[in-house]
Recover the amino acids of this structure.
């Protein structure tokens, strides 16, 4: 029988352990449809009309109770889109489509500057109309000082940063602070 040296065995064990983590994590991911909704949908399969109505009444009552106890939350596509827009610039793990999936992922936003400040190193900080605060992380200098009321387009860049362009001018590399 062939023996593995510790130089080969240790990395092999670590590789197998690393590959098994995503499988176990995937098992714990939400399925997308809450159990309360699945049980409500199951009522459709009952052939007897009286039993089907009783099932719907029971499940809607349980769904209403879960809603009032804040165990389940309902939202529509537009509300989810506004939530994604409000969180634009923050990094979050994938939440199983809690905000409607990736098809509506926000890639850029347009907003208005409410306040501008500059630190001692000459880097800008913008407070936007929605109270979001964005700070400059590069050393780009603008030919004109940004002012409150100007429009800003912020779009996804690389490595967790974003490009902000004030009134269509030169882009600054930014990150969202809060």
């Amino acid at each position: 029988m062939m023996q593995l040296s510790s130089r080969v065995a240790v990395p092999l064990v670590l590789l197998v352990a690393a590959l098994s983590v995503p499988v176990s994590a995937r098992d714990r991911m939400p399925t997308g449809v809450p159990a309360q909704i699945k049980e409500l949908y199951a009522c459709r399969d009952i052939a007897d009309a009286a039993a089907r109505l009783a099932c719907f009444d029971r499940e809607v009552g349980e769904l209403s109770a879960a809603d009032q106890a804040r165990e389940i939350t309902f939202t529509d596509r537009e509300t989810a889109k506004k939530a994604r827009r409000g969180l634009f610039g923050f990094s979050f793990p994938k939440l199983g489509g809690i905000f409607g999936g990736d098809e509506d992922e926000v890639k850029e936003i347009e907003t208005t500057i409410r306040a501008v400040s500059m630190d001692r190193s000459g880097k800008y900080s913008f407070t936007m109309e929605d109270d979001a605060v964005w700070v400059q992380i590069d050393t780009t200098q603008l030919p004109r000082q940004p002012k409150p009321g100007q429009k800003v387009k912020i779009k996804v860049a690389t490595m967790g940063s974003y490009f902000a362009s004030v009134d269509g001018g030169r882009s600054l590399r930014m990150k969202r602070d809060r």
Notes: Residues 21-30 have pLDDT under 50 and may be disordered. The longest helix spans residues 6-27.
